[in-house]
């Protein structure tokens, strides 16, 4: 049985992790799988021709807001040209309630909701055995066992590019606009296993290693352990990027950051809004004053690149309150202030409450107000 894992990334320099996790998970169960990688800048004809050239028995797609429309077209074409090929779809765009309707309509055979490391190998074995009783229910965080996605094939691709890694999965917060809020559970992986993978990525020549942990510093002990590991790679021409919650930075965490060698670490802090009524409505737990003060301390040292985020269009925000938020965050004098417009992502509470707040938004990706 020939299995293809198909990734259509947002940019060439972004090498998504999902298919590599799945490849390793399949390999651990004795199931060979081949990865095909593209970006949304590739023509759909090129992607289509590459898939057909492989003549797969199973084609599995990771579907996100940036590639949803391409994936749907490819599924439709594939099922018409090769109806005996099983099509599996996973990823955020396939994980919300009701998502299966769209994908089944275009010809998908199976939808995997949530994490696929345990589900995909089991499904592939069921397909091979023609076991129609197999169930794909459940969308919780996977087991605590860490699966390294960084096989030799992946490492051969990452020189001078951005590499992604996660030292934890899930999120303890419940911000209504964020997909991470609907995940169940929060797990942290052993720092020694993360260190081994960091070493692989640095040795392979990655220029930036981005931690995709949604709230990296929730656990002080874990954050400090990872930052101690990162410090070992000073002088290796690599930068590490972390998304943090600035208001919960402890004294020890701040000390760890401001003592880092210059240029080794970047941090990204989502402030999003400063209006108390808005914070409450979106279930965002944050002490804005503490966040701003902590970031000013870090900026004052000058060794860390600081990136801040704001979201326009959140409930109860208007031009005046947003102007206040912009000015408040601008006080930090961060190296980068990113303004994003609210996206009403499938599966999030804020999308379910769209009528309550009078939202008008695009029905197609990226679902912006």
Unreliable stretches: none
Portion in beta strands: 15-25%
Which bin fits the share of residues in helices?
25-40%
Provide the gyration radius in Å: 21 Å
Q: How many strands appear in the DSSP assignment?
A: 13
- Spatial strand order of the main sheet: 6-9-10-11-12-13
Compute the separation of the termini in Å: 44 Å
Round the mean pLDDT to the nearest integer and report it.
Answer: 93
Shape assignment: globular
Order of helices and strands: EHEHEHEHEHHEEEHEHEHEHHEHEH
Number of helices: 13
Based on secondary structure, the structural category is: alpha/beta
**Main pleated-sheet profile:** 6 strands, parallel
Provide a descriptive summary of the structure in words.
It is built from 13 helices and 13 strands. Helix content is 34%, strand content 18%. The model has no long low-confidence stretch (mean pLDDT 93). The strands form 3 sheets. Strands 6-9-10-11-12-13 form a 6-stranded parallel beta sheet, with helices on one face. Strands 2-1-3-4-5 form a 5-stranded parallel beta sheet, sandwiched between helices. A two-stranded antiparallel sheet has the order 7-8. The relative contact order is 0.10. With 369 residues, the chain is of the alpha/beta class.
